[in-house]
UniProtKB/TrEMBL annotation:
Keywords: Cell membrane, Glycosyltransferase, Lipopolysaccharide biosynthesis, Membrane, Transferase, Transmembrane, Transmembrane helix
Protein name: Glycosyltransferase, group 2 family protein
Family designation: Belongs to the glycosyltransferase 2 family. GtrB subfamily.
Superkingdom assignment: Bacteria
GO cellular component: plasma membrane
Location of this chain's protein in the cell: Cell membrane
């Protein structure tokens, strides 16, 4: 089974001179879809930051390309994001997708990717930590043949130590997945070629860990280092619990080592139990020493009961993922869509 892409202009774009010429033609105003660059901005209660980000992003795109669109995906905001975007979506080049409720960032990203029409699609957060000025470097790398250009943090010293340690451990565990190499310190801030976007949108899974999916689809990738800016307004909506759940989604979606670890623990304790049981029998036959009383037995039973419950919990996580997949519910529901892309004069006349 293969995925057939609708974008044909850039289908052969790569490191060849023909591929580079095709992508330069796109930025010059001859895009395959009529839109050269799409920027997807998911957000939850980020109205204060959007007031700063959207004008800054618009000014940058005006410099780099003739046709573009900014797609703001409202992931169930309760602030005045809807009122703000009702005004902004009247401006050519700015689009607004409002989800019916909070579906999570991964679903909001997917909604933006499905809505994007650009030959190059850029994802960035609404909290102003992803500098729009870096998009110029991303477009240059894409023009030179990279299918995916992802931003990598130079350092994480601004984060608490437990978050840095947790991130390091998570990426190390995720690296055990065969065929999936998720670059550490890389997030959702990236540029993707139209072919990459269509490959991501074509994936049918409901539980989506986007950082893993970016790596799974492959394509030629290039890193661009950057230093995140300070958050302009508000605080992060990712609590420790949400980060833990996201890590669980990533591990269960791309690795099976937790299941194998449970099996290894079971084999290990079975061998230890057999060894200890053999020792007790031999000690009784040789020395006549009886096994100690109920305290030892009850402690051992409680210990192994805990191991069994942990094992059931690990298996249950995978069963829950299967349950979510087989229900086949949509990943998100859009309440409304507004706005239109800014297209080049040639595209508008066709």
């Amino acid at each position: 089974m293969y995925t057939e892409f609708r974008s044909q202009l850039l289908a052969g774009a790569g490191t060849s001179a023909a591929g580079q010429s095709a992508r330069m033609a796109v930025l010059a105003g001859d895009g395959a879809t009529g839109v050269q660059v799409s920027c997807v901005v998911p957000g939850l209660n980020e109205a204060a930051n959007l007031r700063v980000l959207v004008p800054a992003l618009r000014a940058c795109l005006e410099q780099w390309c003739a046709s573009w669109e900014i797609i703001v995906v409202d992931d169930g905001s309760t602030d005045d994001t809807a009122e703000l975007m009702a005004q902004w979506s009247a401006v050519e080049g700015i689009r607004y997708v409002q989800l019916s409720r909070n579906f999570g960032k991964e679903a909001a990203l997917t909604a933006g990717l499905e809505a994007a029409d650009g030959d190059a699609v850029i994802c960035l957060d609404a909290d102003m930590q992803h500098p729009p000025e870096l998009i110029g470097d991303m477009l240059a790398a894409w023009r030179n043949g990279a299918d995916m250009v992802y931003a990598v943090r130079r350092q994480r010293d601004d984060e608490p130590w437990f978050k840095r340690v947790g991130a390091r451990a998570f990426y190390r565990l995720l690296s055990t997945a065969r065929g999936v190499e998720v670059p550490p310190h890389a997030g959702d801030f990236r540029l993707m070629d139209r072919r990459v976007v269509e490959a991501l949108v074509a994936l049918p899974e409901r539980t989506r860990f986007m950082k893993g999916l970016y790596a799974w689809v492959g394509f030629k990738s290039q890193a661009v280092p950057y230093t995140p800016q300070a958050r302009r307004h508000g605080a992060s909506h990712f609590s420790a619990w949400k980060l833990f759940r996201l890590a669980c989604d990533g591990l269960t979606a791309f690795t099976t080592w937790p299941l194998r670890l449970v099996s290894l623990i079971g084999v290990l304790f079975a061998l230890l139990s057999l060894s200890y049981g053999g020792y007790l029998v031999a000690d009784y036959l040789i020395s006549g020493n009886a096994v100690s009383g109920w305290t030892t037995i009850v402690t051992a039973l409680l210990f192994f009961a805990g191991i069994n419950l942990i094992s059931l919990g690990v298996v249950g996580e995978y069963v829950a993922r299967i349950f979510d997949e087989v229900k086949g519910r949509p990943l998100f529901i859009a309440r409304q869509r507004r706005g239109r892309a800014k297209r080049a004069a040639k595209a508008r006349s066709q």
